[in-house]
Amino acid sequence: MLSYPSAMSVSTRALIMLSDLIRHRRTELGTRWRRLDAGGQARLTLAHVRKNETYADLAVGFGIGTTTVYRYLCEALDLLAAFAPTLDQAIEVARGKAHVILDGTLLRIDRVGMAGGRDRPFYSGKHKCHGVNVQVIADPAGRLIWISPVLPGARHDMGAAREHGIIDALNAAGVQTLADTAYQGGGPTIRVPQRRRRLDPDTGRYQRLSHTQKEVNTAHARRRGPGERANAEIKNWKILRKIRSSPSRANILVKAVQTLILAS
Predict the structure, then answer these.
(1) Share of the chain above pLDDT 70, in %
(2) Would you list the domain boundaries of the chain?
(3) Which residues form the Transposase Helix-turn-helix domain (predicted)?
(4) CA 229: distance to chain centroid?
(5) Taking Cα atoms as reference points, which of 248, 242, 244 lies closest to residue 127?
(6) pTM, 2 dp
(7) How far is 237 from 9, CA to CA, in rounded Å?
(8) Mean pLDDT throughout 88-94?
């Protein structure tokens, strides 16, 4: 059996937090003995989430069985997901920001049932692949504030944001929000770029944007740009680049990653 040392870029704070959660859980259950201590289980979980290591590779690397790997991962991910912030908590954080950035992103997924067209809600025509839609709120510097629960990938960003209650919550709190044109009509606090004007009835062509409107769009894009950092940070956790588990577990993975990012 060939083995080699490896490393992963995870903050010590996130590792300590997860170890403490696992240790507290074991105390509650009265567990006397396990193959890995709390720190070992935390490292196992972070290796899976950060690097998307398979159960077989983790089993060999940590000297335990694949069934034990699965059980340890489910326990740790559920603990992390339980500590993910709610939308109300995220709005309280957003109140203290000059503005926030709202954007949607697609997380690819491959384990979707194809029989009877059950995969259709998960197929994104824009990205030409199956996935789940998440709405991301970031601060002006691009730091993550909140990730929404998942919805099937065919869902439009505006519809997803309304279903999660994000649009109503931001408007009610008076939080100035920058978003792309997908969120057109979101309310008084949702700022989107100027859209191309309607057809000119005389010429039958779209009227071009004025020079001033183009400058406004450029400034808007410049302020909205840092929000892409939050999306990139989410997908830097390789478990979310292509989710191999069932769609029913995708929400747990997203919440767990959110907790780890905010703890870093």
Answers:
(1) 94
(2) 12-82, 87-245
(3) 35-81
(4) 12
(5) 242
(6) 0.89
(7) 10
(8) 96
Average confidence score pLDDT of the chain: 90
What token pair was written down for 61? 């690397």
**Structure token pair of residue 30:** 């009265």
Please report, as a single letter, which amino acid is at residue 167. Answer: I
In angstroms, the CA 73 to CA 41 distance is: 8
Structure tokens at 175: 């939080």
3-state secondary structure 134-182: EEEEECCCCCEEEECCCEECCCCHHHHHHHHCHHHHHHHHCCCEECCHH
The packing angle between helices 66-82 and 247-263, to 10°, is 60
In the chain, the N- to C-terminal Cα span, in Å, equals 34
Q: In angstroms, how far is CA 238 from the centroid of its own chain?
A: 12
Strands (E), the chain: 100-109, 123-124, 129-138, 144-147, 151-152, 177-178, 190-191, 242-243
Q: In whole angstroms, what separates CA 156 from the centre of its chain?
A: 16
Dihedral over Cα of 199, 200, 203, 207: its sign: negative
Going by their DSSP bridges, the two strands 151-152 and 144-147 should be labelled as unpaired
